[in-house]
Amino acid sequence: MSDGAEFAELPLRPAPGGIGGLLELPEPRRPRARVARPDLQHVVPPPAPAADDTARTGRREDDPTRLERMLDDMVGTALASFSAFAAQFDFSRHRRFADIGGATAQLSCLVAERHPHLSCRSYDHPRVRPIAERRILARRLGGRVRAESIDIHADEFAPADVVAMGLLLMDWNPQRKRMLLAKAHRALAPGGAMVAIECADAGRGRRPASGAQVSSGRVIVYGDAFDLSGPDFARWCGEAGFARREVLALTPGTNAIIAYK
């Protein structure tokens, strides 16, 4: 098990979007070697990370039917967190909502249904866009929710009042996390909010069990990716220029960490 080949056939479940994925590890095959990070245990050296978003969702992305099923599976695991965020966050001062890595546009649709004054955009890989467009039309939200394509590395984010990233930042190493936060800051209007819905410790110094499991899966697949900690997020938000932050508890395993411009 030294070269990671055993993991080649394990299914990848995309994070909310074609941009990213969660590795599903059957219990009998859970790896046992250690890596250098003290907070990530029982993981093997990772295979070389893919260089682009298309490759990162695995071979299944070439099959639209299987891709759609994967997206549905992953969005299903995040539905409680998305619903809680749509219900709890104060959108009254905002008009434009953008979800980066939005997959089937579930979060954008939930937000639009609860907050009729908002205009919502869901951004993801071009292959995901037709799926999201069908889901938006099925919910009769075509006038207020749009699916858009994005290359999160090359493209700037469109102007918005709230930029959300659901289970997306944990896909990347610190440098790319900083890049995404900086892009969000540039896109936001003054007083706008960047929202990371993550398996994060919210600055309490301990990681939820779900976050520790996700971190291990990230290291196996992407090398140096890991979920957020509150102190890390606070530091990176300060570097990006955000003025303040707060934490909104969503479910026992997830929080919305919010940074304001």
Q: Can you give a write-up of this model?
A:
- With 261 residues, the chain is an alpha/beta fold.
- It has a single domain, classed as 3-Layer(aba) Sandwich (Rossmann fold), CATH 3.40.50.
- The chain contains 7 helices and 9 strands.
- The chain has a 7-stranded mixed beta sheet, sandwiched between helices.
- Helix 3 (106-114) links the parallel strand 3 (96-100) and strand 4.
- The protein starts with 11 loop residues before the first strand and ends with a strand.
Q: What's the total helix number?
A: 7
Q: What integer is the average pLDDT?
A: 75
Largest sheet: 7 strands, mixed
Number of domains: 1
Quaternary structure: single chain
Gyration radius, in Å = 17 Å
* CATH top level label: Alpha Beta
Element string (H = helix, E = strand): EEHHEHEHEEHEHHEE
What is the number of beta strands? 9
Shape: globular
Name of the CATH architecture: 3-Layer(aba) Sandwich
User: CATH homologous superfamily?
Assistant: Vaccinia Virus protein VP39
How are the strands ordered across the major sheet? 5-4-3-6-7-9-8
CATH topology: Rossmann fold
Strand and helix map with partners:
Layout: E1 12-13, E2 22-23, H1 53-56, H2 64-88, E3 96-100, H3 106-114, E4 119-124, H4 129-138, E5 145-149, E6 160-166, H5 174-187, E7 188-198, H6 209-222, H7 230-240, E8 244-251, E9 254-260
Parallel strand pairs: 3-4, 3-6, 4-5, 6-7
Antiparallel strand pairs: 1-2, 7-9, 8-9
Helix pairs in contact: 2-3, 5-7
